[in-house]
UniProtKB/TrEMBL annotation:
Species this chain originates from: Escherichia coli
InterPro entries for this protein: Dimeric_a/b-barrel (IPR011008), YdhR (IPR014910)
Keyword Oxidoreductase: yes
EC number: 1.-.-.-
Record bears the keyword Calcium: no
Gene that specifies this protein: ydhR
Alphabetized UniProt keyword annotations: Monooxygenase, Oxidoreductase
GO terms of molecular function: monooxygenase activity
Coiled-coil annotated spans: none
Signal peptide (residue range): none
Catalytic class of the enzyme: oxidoreductase
Classification of source organism: Bacteria, Pseudomonadati, Pseudomonadota, Gammaproteobacteria, Enterobacterales
Record's protein name: Monooxygenase
Amino acid sequence: MEGMDRKLKRTTKPVGFYLFTDEKSALAYLEKHTARLKNLGVEEVVAKVFDVNEPLSQINQAKLA
C-alpha cells in the first residue's frame, strides 16, 4: 500500500501494528480495510491511530526514515 512503511507483528490477538509515512495514508488504509472487513461480516473494527514519539524513538534508535 502506498505510504505504508512496515507492519509490526503481534502474536497475542488477531491484531496488527502498521507504520505509515503520514496520517493521510494511515486513515485511507483504515477506511479501505474497515469497509472490506464489514463486507465480510465483521461487525466491529477497533482501530487506533497514534503519532510517533520522535524523542523516544531517537533514544530507542528506531528506524523512522
